[in-house]
Amino acid sequence: MKILPTLHLQNGLAVPLFGPGPSSRDPRELAERLFDQGCHRLALVDVDAAGGKGHNRNLIVGIMRQFHRRNVKVCIQVGGGIRSSDQAQFFLDSGATWIVVGTVIQSSPLVVDQMLARFRDNLTAGVDARAGEIQTSGWREPAPLKAASTAQRIRDHGFKRILFTDIPASADGEVEPDFGTAQIISRNAHIPLFMGGTIRWRKHLKAAAEVPGLQGVAMDACQLLEDPDLLGALDLAHT
User: Fold this and answer.
1) Residue 145 sits in a domain of what CATH number?
2) What pTM did the predictor assign?
3) Nearest to 216 by CA among 234, 190, 192, 200
4) pLDDT per position in the chain (239 positions), as tens?
5) What range defines the domain where residue 47 resides?
6) CB 3.0–4.6 Å: which of 24, 49, 138, 154 could bond 55 by disulfide?
7) Which residues in 197-230 are b (16+ Cβ under 10 Å) and which e?
């Protein structure tokens, strides 16, 4: 089970993904702390670009260069508002290993085919869902397709990897991960699946390890670095 520490970037800061958690932090400092803990795997999500409200492109490039300076053997995933081949090429040229595309899968199948023709080995299909209902455009709009048909479409496009972000219906209280939707996606896509969003505690990691087809989890790096119990699981990032 791989762990993918994730920094969600908004207005130049790393912010918690959902609910209560550490306040906004300097993402460069957090990235340095992750590397010091032995983590060579990192995800960067541009929250502003995903919502169509600016971008954190220069910050993302700076963090990638920072990570690569420490070790050339790193895996960096970038997502959030990437909706063209030129944008994907920019991040790959700047040091990204994986590029996540989500909204264009629903809105622009032709663009997706063009991107896959150029970057198939580097593309991850992003699937965002709340209570099993697919969301697009930075979680602002529901999509007409269900989880099963979305997974089938991703498989038919020829993606090699999926990141499923489970959006909690409420930010209040503790939310259990929607492993049911994860299993639906896995059964219909038949490709490696990662899951994030509601994966927050050590017990969630243990439960995730029992989900067929689920090969890794994305966890909020802000919380990960504040929780010694979770931090102790970072050795799983290299398996």
Assistant:
1) 3.20.20.70
2) 0.90
3) 192
4) 789 999 999 999 999 876 555 567 899 999 999 988 888 899 999 999 988 889 999 999 999 999 888 876 889 999 999 999 999 999 999 999 999 998 888 788 899 999 999 999 999 999 999 888 887 765 566 666 788 999 999 999 999 999 999 988 765 556 899 999 999 999 999 999 999 999 988 899 999 999 999 999 999 998 888 887 777 766 544 44
5) 2-238
6) 49
7) bbbbbeebbeebeebeebbbbbbbbbbbbebeeb
